[in-house]
Amino acid sequence: MRFLKPLSLAASLSLAGLLGATAAHAEQKLVPAQSEIVFVSKQMGVPVEGHFKKFDAQIAFDPAKPETSKIALSVDIASATLGVPETDAELPKAPWFNTAKFPQATFQSTSAKALGGGKFEVAGQLTLKGATVPVTIPVTLTQSGATTTAAGTLPLKRLAFKIGEGEWADTSMVADEVQVKFKFALTGVGKL
Amino acid sequence: MAPRNPSAAAPMARYSGIAMLLHWLLALALACVFCVGLYMADLPFSPQRLKLYNWHKWAGMTILGLSALRLLWRLTHEPPPLPTAVESAMPAWQRAAHHGTHHLLYLLFFAVPLVGWAYSSAAGFPVVLFGVLPLPDFISPDKGLADLIKPWHKLSAFALAALVVLHVAAALKHQWIDRDRLINRMLPGRD
Q1: Cα B159 to Cα B19: distance, rounded to the nearest angstrom
Q2: Which uninterrupted H or E stretch holds B148?
Q3: Which class is B13-180 in CATH?
Q4: What phi and psi, each to the nearest 5 degrees, are found at residue A2?
């Protein structure tokens, strides 16, 4: 199928164009095996931890010029697990993630700025269960060899996304605030 | 009318007020926590179940604490001995059962909530007392261990329930059959 080669070439060129690919941004990749997205909720004071097993990120980040960065994150909602089969069976249902209707959560950055000492602030739009909310994410970068680790914690209000509806909207049962702790291992990022 | 039992004329030495208070308070608490445990286990996944599970754990931990106080009191305050007439009227096996049941009850007062606590920790749910005071996990989260521990909380709780039934039956036997007023030892009042 001869048309596939030029088609995929065109696709990757436009993707590169979209990401504003320059030498500084070339070939930046997420290493999923060394990355994690953990969320911690509080159920009547008891911390309950879950994580997403599948997610992907398109990163174009220049530590020297962070304001030129573009970060796009996509999370497979069906990959959420709390480690307890009975609770996991509830997560895809409509009062919780409603996975069938909203299979992905996404984050699109709109701006990024350096705070010094490896600390950055990335602002953007978070879309979860169909609701889009502006967020500012504090990120700390550390480098070890060829790998750059971007880590941080984003507190989210679950009711803003209608996660835990109806009888589960009661915040004395499950607290409104959920801590999302992320750690992304990246390759191809320039020296900090 | 002359009393049927000669010991009925002698004053009945009672347990201390604290011992009585702890006895009846814990009897009530144990009955409640057992019933909640039985009921909650069959509930479907819901906020109600979450609430009951946590109340059950808070009650269990409170019982554990009170049982520790009770044991401390028991070790430092000798209970009244069985009246000689009552004791001699009991065959050897009954005297053994009397002591044995009480010892086993004390053992289970601690074993049941401790196993429950261990199971909760192993299952990945630390106990947060009254929703505000996190209790330590003496067992780290471990799915395999949780599955191993799980049946033992229920089994030991049922063993405790069986011993309570035996204890109550024995007390009633003393009250209605022997008519030795032994129960008065655990009731406030003056002889």
Answers
A1: 23
A2: helix B143-172
A3: mainly alpha
A4: -65, -25
- Pull the structure tokens for residue A176: 């409104």
- Tell whether B44 is within 8 A of chain A (Cβ): no
- Pick the closest to residue B125 from B146, B151, B109 (CA basis): B146
Structure tokens at B32: 């409640």
**How many CB atoms are located within 10 Å of the residue B125 CB?**
20
* Ordered structural domains, chain A, with CATH: 23-187 (2.40.128.110)
**In the predicted model, what is the mean pLDDT of chain B?**
93
Phi, psi of B82 (to 5 degrees): -65, 135
Crossing angle between the packed helical segments B17-40 and B47-76, to the nearest 10 degrees: 150
Optimal mutation site among B54, B57, B129, B137, interface A, most CBs of chain A within 10 A: B54
Contact between A86 and B45 using a beta-carbon 8 Å cutoff: yes
Q: Which of the four pLDDT bands, split at 50, 70 and 90, describes residue A191?
A: confident
On the question of pLDDT at A8 being above 90, the answer is: no
pTM: 0.85
At which residue do the structure tokens 């990355």 appear? A35
Between the CA atoms of B92, B96, B99 and B102, what dihedral angle is there, to the nearest 10 degrees?
-130
B126 touches chain A (CB under 8 A): yes
Interface contact B124-A45, CB threshold 8 A: no
Contact B54 A90 (CB under 8 A): no
Q: Distance between terminal CA atoms of chain A?
A: 44
What pLDDT digit, counting tens, does each position of B35-44 carry? 999 999 999 9
From the number of C-beta atoms within 10 Å of its C-beta (0-12, 13-18, 19+), residue B30 rates as buried
Here the tokens at position B96 are 């053994």
Select from B51, B120, B132 the residue whose CB has the most chain A CBs within 10 Å, as the one to mutate to test that interface: B51
pLDDT tens column, A110-150: 999 999 999 999 999 999 999 999 999 999 999 999 999 99
Angle, helices B47-76/B92-122, rounded to nearest 10 degrees: 140
Quickly count: other Cβ atoms within 10 Å of residue A137's Cβ: 21
| pLDDT at residue A190 in the model | 86
